[in-house]
Amino acid sequence: MNVTSKLTAAAERLFDRHGYIATGMDRLTEAAGISSRTLYKHVGSKAALMARVLTERDRRFMARIDVRTIDALFAALEDWVRVEGCRGCLFLRSRAETGGDTPEIAEAVALHKDAFHERVGEVVAMDLGREDPALAAQVVVLFEGATHAAVYRGADAVSAARAAAAVLLERARA
Amino acid sequence: MNVTSKLTAAAERLFDRHGYIATGMDRLTEAAGISSRTLYKHVGSKAALMARVLTERDRRFMARIDVRTIDALFAALEDWVRVEGCRGCLFLRSRAETGGDTPEIAEAVALHKDAFHERVGEVVAMDLGREDPALAAQVVVLFEGATHAAVYRGADAVSAARAAAAVLLERARA
DNA sequence: TGCAATGTAAAACGATCGTTTTACATTGCG
DNA sequence: CGCAATGTAAAACGATCGTTTTACATTGCA
Predict the structure, then answer these.
(1) Among A96, B39, B117, B139, fewest CB within 10 Å belongs to which?
(2) Is B118 exposed, middle or buried (0-12, 13-18, 19+ CB in 10 A)?
């Protein structure tokens, strides 16, 4: 396994569990089993490391929601929560932690949210047989809400979102 | 205006805009116009200050969502976003920043989320004429989703949630 | 008048931050 | 063989962290 990918994987876990700022470089190098010199040779800075983490997470996330129906979208989120836990959206969290003032992070977050919204639009179009931007916006809200309500309500929040999405889809079909 | 409430108000603004950890005590004392000695006499620690901020915010938030219908709930959120901006839920953010490991903060967040969920249940019961825990869970998800999608989609996210909630309510009535 | 409370300004505390540097070991390829 | 690349360990960088302390000013009340 590559040094960079090992580092990125370890960093994602630590950033996700303890927060971006609260995670020191010592914890990162120790978790990745590398020296700080190697870390800086490879990624340049802590912010750049976070940007890499977000880009990698976006890849994994987008692969998981490569589905054809709205119901499958929420089924994918149920899987995600079961496998990766529910501590809210790492993208929004890292952006908020830095007040949006770290360009590398803010850009990675913006790219992810754009891609996510576009994907939801595609899924809605496939499921409904036509585009429906209003329904897509509602599904985005339900997905985001499930992600964050799951922090304190657990997987039930995802189930609730899934059921609500089914009602909205049924109504859009009529 | 009381020293403590002036400090709490200044701290809420800074914590909300720049994050809990990223905001240093110097910025807080300067914004509140007090010395660090006075700050520590009054609140004891940074974590205790954040807990006070969250408790105060909870009071203000709960007063705003003291409504009788689901639609008014989302109208209140639209007001909140217009007045206070949209940077996500400060409760979840501060909990995530500290990894849930700061008891004073974690407790304030848990209290707020419990109160919020209970309030939504009451509003749903008033609007529908009977209790409906499943609908209440869906409204919670929509509300949380609107709060977080508004970070990157603006007030439109709240409108989408509001419309979706109306559909779910209509369906629950039938 | 004098004491207690409450405040400020500013220095100092040790710890830790992200980052760079120094010095040295290992390895793979010409 | 020898050099370039790539790594480690560890010290050091100046800055900043949350918190405490020292020394002093102001105020309100007995």
Answers:
(1) B117
(2) exposed
Tell me the nearest-neighbour CA distance from B56 into chain A, angstroms: 20
Number of domains in chain A: 1
Domain interval for residue A71 = 50-173
Q: Does A11 touch chain B (CB under 8 A)?
A: no
Whether residue A135 lies inside any domain: the answer is: yes
Residue A167 DSSP SS3:
helix
The closest nt to A47, taking CA to C1', is C18
Where in chain B does DSSP place strands (E)?
A: none
Which residues, other chains included, contact A96 with Cβ-Cβ below 8 Å and sequence gap of 6+? Answer: B19, B87, B88, B93, B151
Arithmetic mean of pLDDT, B71-76: 98
Q: Residues 33..62 of B with a Cβ closer than 8 Å to A: which?
A: none
Contact criterion met (CB < 8 Å) for A99 and B19 = yes
CA distance to partner chain A, nearest, from residue B61 (Å): 17
| B13 interfacial to chain A (CB closer than 8 Å) | no
Q: Is residue A40 assigned to a domain?
A: no
Given CB atoms, is A89 within the 8 Å cutoff of chain B?
yes
Position A4 in a domain: no
Strand D nucleotides where any atom sits below 7 Å of a protein CB: 6-11, 16-23
| Each residue's pLDDT tens digit, A59-93 | 999 999 999 999 999 999 999 999 999 999 999 99
Q: Residue A74's closest CA among A150, A127, A152, A142? A: A142
- Share the mean pLDDT of chain A: 97
Give this complex's ipTM: 0.95
Are B134 and A19 inside 8 Å of each other by CB? no
Domain membership of residue A35 (yes or no) is no
The span from the CA of B112 to the CA of A171, in Å, is 33
Q: How far apart are CA B113 and CA A152, in angstroms?
A: 8
CATH number, domain containing residue A78:
1.10.357.10
Q: How confident is the model at residue A114 (pLDDT cuts 50, 70, 90)?
A: very high
Q: What percent of chain A has pLDDT over 90?
A: 98
